[in-house]
Amino acid sequence: MAIVARRLTPRPSLRLRLLGGAALGLAAALVASWLAIGSVLRGAAERAFDARLDVTALALMGAVSRDADTGELELDARPIDPRFEAPLSGWYWALFETGEDGQPRGSAVQRSRSLWDASIAAPGDHATGPAGEALRVDERRFTAPGGGGALLVRVAGPRVELEAAERAYNGTLTLCLALLGAALLAASTVQVVVGLRPLGALGRSLAAIRIGQARRLPPARHAEVEPLVRELNTLLDHDEALVERSRRNVGNLAHALQTPLAALANLMREPGRDPDGHMAEAVGRMQAQISHQLRRARLSAAAGVLGARVPLAEVLEELAPVLRAAHRDRGIALSMTVDPALAFAGDRQDLEEMLGNLLDNAMKWAATQAEVTATGEGRRLFITVSDDGPGMRKEDAVRALAWGSRLDQATPGHGLGLAIVAEAVEAYGGLLLFPEPNSVSGNLMESGLEVVLELPRSV
Amino acid sequence: MKILLAEDDATLATQVSRTLREAGFAVDVAVDGEEAAHLGGTGFYDAAVLDLGLPVVDGLTVLRGWRGTGRSLPVLILTARDGWSDKVAGFRAGADDYLTKPFRLEEVVLRLRALVRRAAGHAAPVLRCGPLELDTQVGAFAHHGLPLRLTAFEARILGYLLHHPGRVVSRTELSEHVYEEDAERDFNALEVLVSRLRRKIAPAAIATERGQGWRLLPGA
After folding, report:
1. B193 to chain A, minimum CA–CA distance in Å?
2. Beta-carbon neighbour count of residue A180 at 10 Å?
3. Is residue A286 less than 8 Å (CB to CB) from chain B?
4. Residue A216 has pLDDT above 70, yes or no
């Protein structure tokens, strides 16, 4: 019995591979989108913030004038935004006189109240205010009406407000993209599961063939699966044809050998042809050998074929007239009590061979009747063949079963059937059970013989 | 009693036909399926011995052909294929009995006698008509319990009449069942043989129905 090694490592799943690919692609696309959309939004927010600073700067520029006499700078109107009045609010403005280099000369000439006496640093990423807060600074150079040197106005706002805006839109963006990603992944999952469903159906169809509920795969509903189905069905056809051809060849060989041997055997019986009977004996041995080997060839021809479902009662019904004809003259009754739902998982000819031989044997030895009953338990089928004959001695049973392995000592026709049954039963992983021998008489049963055949059952 | 023997192996065919003739049967031999189908489909046979491995047309096809056209003659199949599935196939095609090669020649005779007897409607192996008896198992005739000595041809005639006692058997019918296919059919010779039989048994045993034929009567 061959031992099939099971792979312990998990097999790569097609479904996982497809889903993994989809998830990877989705993640990359979503991260890129998040980065691109984030940068666009950040730019827009910064521009809006800068525009607000610029409005104040322009207002200040319009409000500044220089007194022609004193050269003093005058501010007609201060920006009305109260945040420029609240101390250290983060919103500041300051006005500077500038030197030759365009940089502020001395301290601010005018400044917002919020700034107290502090100044505003030049625009830059690390500009900070008087309270140490990060600032975004806008500056413009101009000259005031009334002449004089160039002026510089700086307006600053707190970066923290910009960051708050950024956080707000970032949260929304992340949530939206996450939802989109989840929806797309769900869609891919559905697609993969639905898309791979024909493969699952194919697997179930093959299983149905293996346990004998179907003979061929049903036509594929999808163009992609169709070639696979066609190839598998072709393979099954080929398999069946191979068995069929091999059986036919065996049959032809039987005919070609047995017919001239039969003629030879008949010739040997004519008076004077074979006075000491040696030749007849040799011919008989040849016939038995051929018969046995051909039967074995038929059995092994069936091995390896995907199982079929063979209704037990149907096979018995077909065997009955053959058996009754063979034992008609002795008037042996044959009774069969078999549930029509019971079925054998295997080849029909093999079952015919096993039952035919067992029943033939039973009817040969029976005094008045032979009987078949059957039960099923799970995946096992138990067929009981009994007769009311003289029973069988243990050593006879052993010898009959061992016939196949001791061909050289074979007696033609004796126990041949039982050996074939034993061989077929073994091929199916079944059992041929004889009851315990009676200790007194040495017979397997006091009256009659009961044999139980255990075989795989098709459910 | 006439038998159709369909067997392609010449040696075996000769052995079987010789044995059957010795046992009191008329035998026609067909050497292939085509000839067997033709003879069985047109001739008047009491039984057929059919080898399943015939050339041209195989035995199962021949048998199905006969059954399909309503030929009900009993058929004993001979096969070298001794698998049970082959036997089942034979019975499904309409066979009445089978023999697996190799077989004993006496076995063919025994099976055929039983088939012919049952086909004529007799359940018991010994046929009786008044004091006349035929033990079909050994093919022996007796009259008032004493063995009758008959020639092979006389045995054929009396055998057929004993299978159909009390019924009028026409000259044509009798000739169909006792003459082999290639034999010259001679009604006058048949008359002579029947007369000889009457002398051996009893003059009144076989009545002549004028213009119709003969009838075996239980009275004498």
Report:
1. 32
2. 14
3. no
4. yes
Cis check for the bond before B102: say yes or no (omega within 30 of 0): yes
A432 forms bridges with which residues in the sheet? A453
pTM: 0.62
Contact in structure between A378 and A253 (CB atoms under 8 Å): no
Check: complex ipTM more than 0.85: no
> Which one of B17, B75, B84 would you mutate to disrupt binding with A, by most A Cβ within 10 Å of its Cβ?
B84
| Cα A326 from chain centre | 54
Pair A325, A357: CB distance under 8 Å: no
Q: Work out the average pLDDT over A416-442.
A: 73
Q: Closest Cα of chain A to B51: distance in Å? A: 10
Cα separation of B29 and B16, whole Å? 10
**All structural domains of chain B:** 2-119 (3.40.50.2300), 126-216 (1.10.10.10)
Residue carrying structure tokens 């790569």? A12
Kindly state whether A267 is in contact with chain B, defined as any CB-CB distance less than 8 angstroms: yes
For the segment(s) A307-459, the CATH number from 2.40.10.120, 3.90.1150.10, 3.30.565.10, 3.30.70.240 is 3.30.565.10
User: Count of alpha carbons within 13 Å of A172, Cβ hemisphere only?
Assistant: 8
Report helix, strand or coil for A452.
strand
For chain A, give the percent of residues with pLDDT over 70: 87
Between residues A10 and A55, which one has the greater pLDDT? A55
